[in-house]
Fold:
Amino acid sequence: MYWVSVITEAGIFAILALGLDVIWGWGGDFDLAFYGYLALGSYLTFVLTIGKPTPPVQYILGFHLPVLLSILLAVVVVVGLAAVIGAIALRNLRDIYFAVTTLGAVSALYLLVENYTPLFDGYNGVYGLINPGQTALNLTYNGYRIVFLGVVLVLLVLAYLLVQRLSRSPFGRMLRAVREDERAAAAYGRPVFGAKYRAYLFGAALAGLTGGLFAIFISAFNPSAWTPQELLVIYAAILVGGRGNPRGVILGVFVVYIGFIELTRYLPSPASRPDFAPAARQILIGLMIILMLRFRPEGLFRERPGLDRGPVPPAPAAAPASQRAAALPGLTSEERARREGDASKAARRRAGKTERVGKTERVGKTE
Amino acid sequence: MSALLEIENLTKSFGGVHAVRSCTFSVPEGQVTGLIGPNGAGKSTVVDLVSGFGQPDSGSVTFAGQPLAGKRPDVISRLGLIRTFQTPREWRNLTVMDNVLLARRRFASESLWRSLTRARRIRREEEADRAAVRDILERFQLAELRNELAVRLSGGQKRLLEFARIAAAEARLIILDEPMGGVNPVLGARIGEAVRQFAAEGRAVVVVEHNLPFIENTCHQVVVMDLGEVIAQGPFSGLRDNPRVVDAYLGMDQSHE
Amino acid sequence: MTTFLVSIGIGLSTAAILSLSAVAFTLEYAVSRIANFAHGEFLTIGAYAAYSGQTIFHQNVAAAAVIAAAAGAAAGLALNFGLIEQFRGRSAITVFIATLGVAIIVENVLIIIYGAANVTYGFGQGKLHHVGPFLWTTSDIEVIISALAVAGIIYLLLQRTRFGKAVRAISQDRALAQVSGIPARRIIMQTWALAGAVAGFAGFVLADTVGTFGPTLGFGFLLLTITATVAGGLGRPYATFGGALIVGLAIQIAGTYTSSAYQLVFAFLLLVLLMLFRPNGVFVRRSAVAVRA
Structure:
């Protein structure tokens, strides 16, 4: 059952990371408000499902909606919040300035939630969403947990397919172009803000969904669950797995969560210092971020652009390979040699001999 | 018949310095118009103002009868205007094919919703574009590099990529900002060819350049600027005898590479 | 009216601490062109160093302050050498994320060493004094005086010494400065040591003012520091004092009329507004200014 819990949590964060990767990996925006969307999604799922608060507990709303509907409504509200923050921060700010502004916005919200108790009961937070629908589905506690794991994994697969499809689509291509060079993108008619904004809302929607899942998973939620540190773990996971690569991102999350949790589980925590293990874990996360950024910023799995597999039109007749290569401007002699090699490879390919396209390898079926 | 691009009394200052002052000229379709002048003449500023990367203080720019005042650069681009920058600005971590495909500008398919729901149909429709782009890449001898990341291309190849993008964009007005910067003669000849081809296709081309032989070989008419003002317009041959032009270029070698 | 003036008084005290932290942050930015998200840790390190030093120097506030500054200076040097240099040539946002990583590491190392629970100093400086219309504790007064003193020292350093001239040159154009014979690397190191020292000292006075503190002391103060720096203008040390004053007073006044718990909320909203409307023309780096599209 321990493993059920660990994998469920990893699965939830994998979905979260997919959303964040759209904003950061494809869009290039280092958003520090992202965890706030998960938090709001969680809070709302609670207060829409667990009914009216019994004093001294207090929180807003307090309906008794079916949990699925609550999550859906939560996502809608989260996207609304992201629409506001995104509109403010994305229009004119980039990089550090964007990051700091989002941090400011989410910190303001954090403090508001923490101090204005009528919202979500401040420090105490909300609790009581225990396995919604368990009795209706006639499951034991453990049985529900296993089913929930299944649900999370299914959702993860769906999210992956969705994100992968988007990645290969014209939208994904355009978003990356905007990330690579905004001026050029604008010069070719792309709405820079519009593209980033849509990506931002999409990511936030996934965060809201994850918030709902998280609410069911841990059955309680309070401010200590959404400190900036939590968000950095997700960023670390994306860094490790591979920015802009959905498969890599999921792998990164599983590596970081399961790998790390397992690694540090066996770290001794001296009785006098119960904070040792969690602190050690955070130190490793910090080290990982720095090391990945320094030595392998693209992550374990590079972002793989879609490859074109169409037929290359026949080269203009007459000129033999060497002459054509020499006419190409700006080539060093080694490049020329490589190109000649490619040209003959291309000729062989046209004759139907090899499967390779240019010099780029193809792994798996579709790219 | 009014020209495709009409610039009238364009003025722009930066902190007290007049970068552009009452600039007026027009750009007809099917021709190559050169925009020359010594450094600091205001040529790049004019390009920025026309393409939306800056707002004029006063004056007007009309493109195909539409005023461009206050429009964002992406909006102006969608009206059919493509411009380049002084350094090739390829999308580095995208493939050559993607770089040129993006120039096809099928905006409708780039909506997030449609990308998700009509993926299959979009992919089918994209095949036609891909075939056209492969042809264009072949023209510029980049076809075999089409799956390479743009960042891996050599400087000359990046210039060619830029022209492939422009060719793919099928724009009505093409503004080239110093396309010959740091270009060797072989590549330069290819660029000249491409520019003449664009004009032959009925497009309007504006070339901002310092390379006067290139201007002489490709341009039907030339606009000369100095210190923010237009000081002469007309065919290149007339400029040599124009005292104001000679003055402005005092000391500049005519056979400058 | 008295309450208002007392608030102003507290605001001044807050502004004093803020200005120390902010001027250090802005010096770091000025010479290295990065937003150092580990900056808060300099404060925390300074505070804890003074705490540890208490076992040796007991009630000696001056000694504690010196220890705090020294620890901060060491931290500044370590960060510059261990991180900034390693990431030379990388984009500003990459270095920024790396400093975030450092912040996590330092904070948790401190948790391991000192535990996560709060600690206190034993200096006993809570005695209130009436200074004109203001009501200040002993530590408040010390803070304000030291802030003014540091401001003066920094002014002298920047304007009257060769070191200061070099710093100003580097902050404008590092390449040009190097070509003019300025030993950029050394000057930058020294600036980081200076900034670290000021930050460490700021951490000590901050901890002294709030009474009890934990490993998150500096990080919590970081966003406020950034707000003050932005208000004054990134990379402009003198203006930063003005920015700190504005922010310190603003949040104190806001807190008086709503509730002290919301002071920071107000501060962060202020930060967002500043970023949007008054990045003060300091944010002129291309990366920050998005294309209007």
Remarks:
- Chain A is about 65% helix and 0% strand.
- Chain A touches chain C through 49 residues (CB under 8 Å).
- The first helix of chain A runs from residue 2 to 26.
